[in-house]
Amino acid sequence: MSIREGRFEEGLDPRIARLGESISYDHRLFAEDIEGSRAHASMLHKIGLLEKSELQQILDGLETIEQDIAKGNFSFDPDLEDIHMNVESALKHRIGEVAGKLHTGRSRNDQVATDERLYLRKSGNALIKQIEDLIRSLLHRAETETETLMPAYTHLQRGQPTTLGHHLHAYSCMLLRDRDRFRDCIQRSDVLPLGSGACVGSGLPLDREFVREQLGFSSLSSNSLDAVSDRDHLLEFLSSASILAVHLSRLSEELVLWSSAEFGFVILPDSISTGSSMMPQKKNPDGAELIRGKTGRIFGHLISLLTVMKGLPLAYDRDMQEDKEGLFDTVDTLNLCLDGMTAMIESIEFDRNRLAQAACDPASATTATDLADYLVRNGQPFREAHRAAGALVREAQKSGRALWDFSLEELVSLLGVDADPSIHESLDPKRSITRKDLPGATAPDQVRKAIARSRKLLEN
Ligand code: ARG
Question: What is the pLDDT of residues 13-34, one digit of tens each?
């Protein structure tokens, strides 16, 4: 069966056929394509364009095709271009001429748009589950580290004391937003295009509402030209994917840095480490590096589809066939990365001593800001306090001492202020974290509350 039989006298040049085929990748839409066809056929019966027995033959035929494809017992024909024509042609072989009624009032343009929205819903929901699993592992690890001191960095220089729990919880917050972005995207994509035909709808009395209900969409597209040419939902999906990839990549980068001898914050257990083919001593964080590296292809797919879409006149253009490979690869890549990251978060070990040493390193003077805060509480303007604390840090570094090594008398004279013994408390990194007692800040009680809030959001 060919769509060329009527209009064309000559066959298609194989070089153009090779360029045009999409079955080599859109076969992945087979279940969605058949689901859409079932709903469409049932609707055709409802409006009197298919006999009951014809509908039954079509449904039975589609059923056997679906089973065969799922079992790998189906051979796709590239001459039939895409999944839509492959299924329709197989149906004709199995049930005869009546198969020709299935495409009544339908175009591959509204068909593929429908298949893709069904696919986005299914794969998006699966990714959301994986994101949630990763968030769960992160929250679990964060919860047990709310008292584990470490430095917070700015410019990758030690800034102020924080805790590992607070640091890990930051990633849970990012991933919760990622989860919600995918949800939003699925929700906005929850519109049925079928019934839009090739571009202007159909002259047949199709019951779109019935098909919508069958396929579980929330609403009908309200403009057929838009419906067949809209790929916003895929762009949103790829954008959400790219932002998620950024987060996974940043976490990966930290795992790579932290597992280096230079940081030594993280110990990679054997189960997630890789070896070197030459250097026998090596234990490498390849998993984290690959997640970081795979970000490139995910961004690439977003840029690629933005570029495909940007100059297209309404309505459908064949360029849009280029939307699929990047979409599938994005789904597959995120699937790998999310599972891999969850495995790493579940099993990495933290070197708490090393983390605390970095926070308490005298040379890093991570409590200099706390000292300025102390002076502010004693009535100094912050700029003056900042200068005085800075001068003390300079003095400490010159003489190789820690801020807390200075006696009260020395502090009073160096800072030029009245101070009481509690000034030493302000210099203690452990106390520094409990003083950051604002919502969203580092204090262990605040972090525990924040983690509890994230758990609630996660289960929502
Ligand atoms: N394989 C095509 C695609 O993915 C299906 C739509 C083809 N429509 C057409 N008029 N040639 O975009």
Answer: 999 999 999 999 999 999 999 9
Topology, domain 360-448: Ribonucleotide Reductase Protein R1; domain 1 (1.10.40)
* CB of residue 4 inside a 6 A radius of ligand 1: no
pLDDT < 70 regions, the chain:
1
Closest-CA residue, ligand 1 atom 7, reads 108
Place of tokens 């758990």: 455
| Residue 224 tokens, joined | 């057929």
Probe target for ligand 1 pocket from 321, 323, 325, 327, with the most ligand atoms within 8 Å of CB:
321
Spatial CA neighbour of 126 closest among 39, 241, 232: 241
Residue 112: CB atoms within 10 A of its CB come to 26
Partners of 151 in the β-ladder: 161
Domain 14-104 belongs in CATH node 3.40.50.1820? no
Centroid of ligand 1 to alpha carbon of 321 (angstroms): 6
Instruction: Sort strands 157-163 and 149-154 into parallel, antiparallel or unpaired.
Output: antiparallel
Fold classification of 109-357 is: Fumarase C; Chain A, domain 2 (1.20.200)
Closest by Cα among 94, 132, 108 to 36: 108
- CB of residue 318 inside a 6 A radius of ligand 1: yes
State the pTM of this model.
0.97
